[in-house]
Write a structure and sequence with these properties.
Layout (H helix, E strand, L loop, with lengths): L5 E2 L26 E4 L7 E2 L7 E3 L5 E3 L6 E3 L6 E9 L6 E8 L5 H4 L1 E6 L34 E9 L2 E6 L2 E7 L29 E4 L7 E10 L20 H5 L1 H6 L10 E6 L1 H5 L1 H12 L9 E6 L5 H6 L1 E2 L2 E2 L4 H8 L3 E5 L2 H5 L7 H17 L3 E5 L15 H18 L2 E3 L1 H12 L24 H18 L2
Helix pairs in contact: 5-12, 9-10
């Protein structure tokens, strides 16, 4: 049975980074690496030098001189390659770790992940244990023994790109993980338990980097540097409650990358049908997605096709019929579904069902019609993605005349997606959050503009609106194929 996945593509996905670490000015070398530690200073880290816990040795090495706090970067990072050297001391029971994508620094274990650093022999750990040196702690065990003898420097390279984590130790690949497979709290994909209270795959795909202080156990670091792998910017500060960020904007922001990149679930020749109104008919977001598919790292040779079925003025009943006073599709929806046999069917309707007033669609007919659409799509062999309607007017904080009705119809879609086990793309929440953030200046008459933020007329999309839809719908397609 397919699980229902809510994609809350919050408006922040196109915003600049938050202002954490505002006093930090990164040092970037000629090859694009940000220097986190090179023996000179600790400017990249939140640390109190006067406390004497984390110190720099005469040999320009970073070490915990005594028990105390783990240190974290001032900045948050999304997709990157992180490199560092570490050395353990024989007989000292060395124990530490490198934290990645930590949301809340006060809850690093629960809201991030750790690459273990451990003197395996001192703790009775086999080289391939879940807590062994180099393991993605509690999640993925090392695949090969790449450890250097105690007292020698180890080189670690950690690559984090969207849902993928790769760990290399001393030039050997030892861990590969697709975080999207971790869907259940306290459980790994193989069904075995772990200690983490949140599904690892639902954690934000961004966060702080940390170096663990395990009771001052002897350990040294050097040559710590990081290079970005994408243009993604952090969406959060780390102060947000973890429950408010699980499985939310970060995943949506990377929707096009997930749809077209190395971890894409798409297969050769697959077809994706998209049914909608004039927003879909104009095709801005569909074109954006198709271009990304045609140029994608994995999808370019797959020849995946997007089948656009946008009806000008379309409502649920008229799209099912394939025609209305303002236009026609190539046939009734049932005929098109049977003819095309799409692998995924996206249904993005609701604007005109509300906007047309008395000539629109009643809530009862809207719900029953959508239910019929879902059944038809599934009968044709397709997986179903339901998208909530976006906007009729861009005034913030519920200031548009039809906001309450749109919210009502969006909730019908959410409820139906949950009951029918469809993938849900919550565009309504994405768009309202975006305009609440960006539409903040009133005109001379004290009124907020009703358009020109994501749309050119309050309904139809500007490039920014099309990009937001494309990212969110792309993520929905990925989730539907899991």
């Amino acid at each position: 049975m397919k699980k229902t996945i809510m994609l809350l593509c919050a408006a922040a996905l196109l915003l600049a980074a938050p202002s954490f670490g505002a006093d930090y000015k990164p040092r970037i070398d000629k090859d694009g690496w940000e220097i986190l530690f090179d023996g000179k200073d600790l400017n990249a880290w939140d640390v109190d030098p006067a406390a004497g816990v984390w110190t720099i040795s005469q040999d320009a090495e970073l070490l915990p001189a005594k028990g105390g706090p783990t240190i974290f970067t001032k900045q948050r990072y999304c997709d990157y390659v992180l490199e560092l050297d570490f050395k353990m001391a024989a007989g000292a029971k060395s124990n530490s770790g490198v934290f990645i994508r930590v949301h809340n620094r006060a809850q690093a274990v629960a809201t991030g992940m750790e690459i273990q650093i451990l003197d395996n022999a001192a703790y009775g750990a086999k080289w391939n244990a879940m807590n062994a040196n180099g393991a993605l702690y509690g999640l993925v065990r090392p695949s090969t023994d790449a450890n250097k003898p105690m007292g020698q420097w180890n080189h670690c390279r950690i690559t984090v790109k969207d849902a993928l984590v790769d760990i290399e130790l001393n030039g050997k690949s030892i861990v590969k993980a697709d975080l999207s497979k971790w869907t259940t709290p306290r459980r790994n994909p193989d069904g075995k338990g772990n200690k983490f209270p949140y599904a690892i795959g639902s954690l934000p795909r961004e966060g702080f980097i940390g170096l663990q202080n395990y009771g001052g156990k002897a350990l040294w670091f050097r040559n710590v540097r990081i290079k970005p792998l994408s243009n993604r910017k952090p969406l959060y500060t780390g102060k947000e409650p973890i429950a408010d960020v699980l499985g939310r904007p970060a995943t949506c922001e990377s929707g096009l990358d997930e749809l077209t990149g190395a971890s894409s679930p798409l297969k050769a020749g697959q077809k994706i049908a998209i049914y909608g109104d004039s927003i879909t008919m104009q095709g801005g977001y569909v074109t954006m997605m198709q271009k990304a598919l045609d140029a994608g790292e994995k999808t370019k040779p797959l020849k995946v096709k997007l089948l656009k079925h946008g009806l000008n003025g379309g409502r649920v009943p008229t799209v099912m019929a394939g025609k209305c006073p303002w236009g026609k599709l190539g046939g009734a929806m049932s005929e098109l579904l049977e003819k095309e046999k799409a692998d995924v069917v996206v249904i993005f309707l609701g604007i005109n069902d509300v906007w047309h007033g008395k000539k629109g669609t009643s809530p009862e007919d809207f719900k029953s019609g959508l239910k019929k659409m879902v059944k038809m799509a599934r009968d044709s062999g397709g997986r179903v993605v339901l998208a909530t309607p976006t906007l009729i007017g861009e005034k913030p904080k519920g200031g548009n005349p039809l906001d309450k009705q749109l919210d009502q119809y969006a909730q019908i879609i959410r409820d139906l997606a949950a009951v029918e086990k469809c993938t849900l793309v919550d565009l309504r929440k994405a768009f309202t959050r975006y305009v609440d953030k960006h539409n903040t200046k009133k005109d001379a008459k004290g009124r907020f503009p009703r358009s020109k933020i994501l749309t050119y007329d309050g309904v139809h999309m500007l490039p920014a609106g099309n990009k937001l839809i494309a990212q969110c719908v792309s993520r929905g397609i990925v989730e539907s194929l899991k």
